[in-house]
Amino acid sequence: MDYESVIGLETHVQLKTKSKMWCGCANEFGAPPNTHVCPVCLGLPGVLPVANEEALQLTVLAGLLLHCEIPGYAKFDRKNYFYPDMPKNYQITQYDKPSTRNGWLDFEFAGGISRVRITRAHLEEDVGKNSHFDRHSGVDFNRAGVPLLEIVSEPDITSADMAYEYLNALKEILIYGGVSDADMEKGMVRCDVNVSVRPRGAAELGKKIEIKNMNSFSGVRHALEYEIPRQIEVLAKGGQLTQETRRWDDAGGVTETMRSKEMAHDYRYFPDPDLMPFEPSASWLEQVSRRVVELPLAKKQRLMREFQLPASDAQTFVWDAPLGNYFESLARKSPNPKSLANWVINNLRAQLSGTGTTLAELKFRPEHLLELIELVESRKISNSMAQQVFAAMFAGGEAPGAIVEKKGLAQVSDTGAIEAYCDQAIAANPGPAADFKSGKSAALNFLKGQVMKLSKGKANPSLIGEILERKLKQ
Amino acid sequence: MLNQLTTWQLAEKLARREVSARQAMQACLDQIQRVDGRLHAFLSCDAADALEQAGQADHALASGAVDKPLLGVPIAIKDVIAVRGQRLTCGSKILGNFISPYSATVVEKLREAGAVVFGRLNMDEFAMGSSTENSAFGATRNPWDLTRVPGGSSGGSAAAVAADECLAALGSDTGGSIRQPAALCGCVGLKPTYGRVSRYGLVAFASSLDQIGSFTKDVRDAALLLWAISGQDSRDSTSVPQPVPDYAAGLDGNLKGLKLGLAKEYMIGGLDPQVSAAVQTAVKHLEKLGTEIVEISLPHTDYAVAAYYIIATAEASANLARFDGIRYGLRVDGADPVELYRKTRGAGFGAEVKRRIILGTYVLSSGYYDAYYLRAQKVRTLIRRDFLEAFQQVDALVTPTTPTAAFRAGEKSGDPLQMYLSDIYTISCNLAGICGVSIPCGFTGNPKLPIGLQLLGRPFGEGTILKLAHAYEQSTDWHKEKPPLNF
Questions:
Q1: Which of A150, A165, A422, B438 allows an S-S link to B182, with CB 3.0 to 4.6 Å?
Q2: Is residue B11 over pLDDT 70?
Q3: Residue A297 belongs to some domain of the structure
Q4: What residues of B are in contact with residue A139 (Cβ under 8 Å)?
Q5: What pLDDT, on a 0 to 100 scale, did the predictor assign at position A303?
Q6: In the prediction, which pLDDT does A41 show?
Q7: Using only C-alpha atoms, what is the Rg of chain B?
Q8: Overall number of domains in chain A
Q9: Assessment of whether the complete model's pTM goes beyond 0.80
Q10: Is residue A46 within 8 angstroms of chain B, CB to CB?
Q11: Closest Cα to residue B397, out of B444, B434, B427, B424?
């Protein structure tokens, strides 16, 4: 029998705020343990949470970027469970009234565009981090109370690869919108997977299995690549699957049972009486909606359409948004956006990364790049000359015309001068000249090179070819 | 005897430089020395720190500070409100030797007003109880009769004010924990409207019901303290941006045109005849003072105690989860975190706290949530509506504060339900989020025990109930009576 898998993802992303969700402590990775803590995020007796305005905004912004509805009423609830990394032994989250719901995410997959529906994106708080040493354990509460966005997808994902691409697209959108830095290395993104299998085409879903403890997107992919065949094998052998939570063992490359349905937590959710319901006003929503940016996929498609860029160039400008913005600001004034894209990607980007310079530090004015391209297109300078001119303007900020002038780099298109060089080259190299006449066309390139040398690189290459051929065929 | 003064009387004497703040503080410390061995109102009292603060107040007075209404006035604090650098036990063993690294907003506000904030007052563990017998550090006794309870949970605050161990005190009221002990000890106890006073620094019992309030020797003091501690606080999202009026200035004795409601549902069996008679006399007196008495109905009164014990325990079960032995307080080690939690919480919490955590955990459990917690919240809405409708007809309600005067120590501690019913008149006020004040309105015969009259007001209607309470008080002598304390 043929089986299909049904996958839904719960992705936790730390929001890019200056301070934590309920207090003024810095939301900053990498500080020494328990240095970004205060009575509130340590859960000392008597403290109260106060919601971070920026976190509320970023949550709704994420919802807008994911095409979600923004309900007029959201609230915070307490999710009760005991764990040493939880200062209050309840986590403040949004249970049945999330800030955003019912959206979708489009992304490129398998040569087309796939859509995964978003059930909800809600706001909650991160917990501390446990460390285990030889003889004792420790908890670092720097992370406790960092605002966390949980994005729950519908079970629209059908394969490990699709899950992987969905996650990458999601991450890109959140980084793009300024919602999160989504830095995996810093633990800013964490993922739980719900996966079941069923005979292809069956109406009913199979037993849902949740996999926890994956800290990278490739981990999610590997876990699914292990888990889907495992489930299929159980069913194919006539076995039964039971609803359970499994843990991904990254080193072993296997999933293993963590707890069964019977052992599932009863989180005893109830509305947090310390926080008022969140009812965004029209003007507040308007303020947040002004922060909405063009989505990466939409931008890529637009760049391809508007400027006839190849997909790879468009993608480069999506990934490197400042470079993309630089390109776009010039492309509208450029008669040839495609060659502008080449210059920006192949020359400008290389110089920037080679010298560790940022766009803001560029010495030349953006229009100078257009001028340079114009010099090449009108054959005033050759391509190789243009490289030198670009290097000079990058270094000194002068206009390309002035550089060409100063260095005498202008291409020689004066046929009289080129004819003289050609005669000289033919006279000095009778062998290759004879070779060409006897049909060895490759000999022409040698002679062209000689002419170029004589002109000190300034002769217009296409003119050289024309004149040499005419003279040799005489 | 400076410790017997009201705060405004002492403030006047201090301003005139007739006495010093140090003398006043010393008078309180002397009284504590004399009576607290029997009363046990204080869990601890840092005398050196108190005198140091009083000395600073004297310096300020000497340099002409006049804009601080409580400058140099000793005010004691229930041990559930955080004071930086002081122990915070909540009457529980589970907090161990925890020292608070921060101060509650009300404490900061009292200090801004010049008060000498001192002492940690006894209470039922985590404010759960009505007799202060649930303190892990021993019960407080009633100054009027040492065989009787002072009420609770703020029994230490009530006893300390009644016995002149301080000039005023702060307490907290979740279902009557200020008004009931104030009634049983014969002082003025004010529970402000929910959101009137910041809860930041108040260790939560039931967050949607808790409110900090005052114990004072007269109504003017209640007005002064409320003015000092009220106002919106950026650290408490549930505090309300309502302007804070000069409550004392509103105590003008003019009750003309005010309507007082008597709830027919409050005339219940179990109401002590002496209490009933005193309250009826008080109502007639209020009528003579110019108010109109109107019978009103609060039809959902019967469900208040049940709804309260579901909502309060549900919230408490989460609020008290943080006491786990991991970060602070008592720790009893175990082989794994779960064993550590079990042993720590098993050893650290008393029986009543455990009972309420278990009840609260149960009512929130999957499968029971709708039948208990959700239904209780609906009842709460109906109770609030009852009050808001009543306040369409009247300006305040008048009730007994408690069904009986102070009961004997041990009398109800074996029967939690009987104990819960002693809060029957006070609980609805917290469910509705309105304000209430208890003032002395008489005494029982033999033994002589105080009786409390409760006035309930509209949300943010403290000005009205204080005006009523003040007019009544000023035309009676009940508040001038002092417990004998002749041990």
A1: B438
A2: yes
A3: no
A4: 326-327
A5: 95
A6: 97
A7: 21
A8: 2
A9: yes
A10: yes
A11: B434
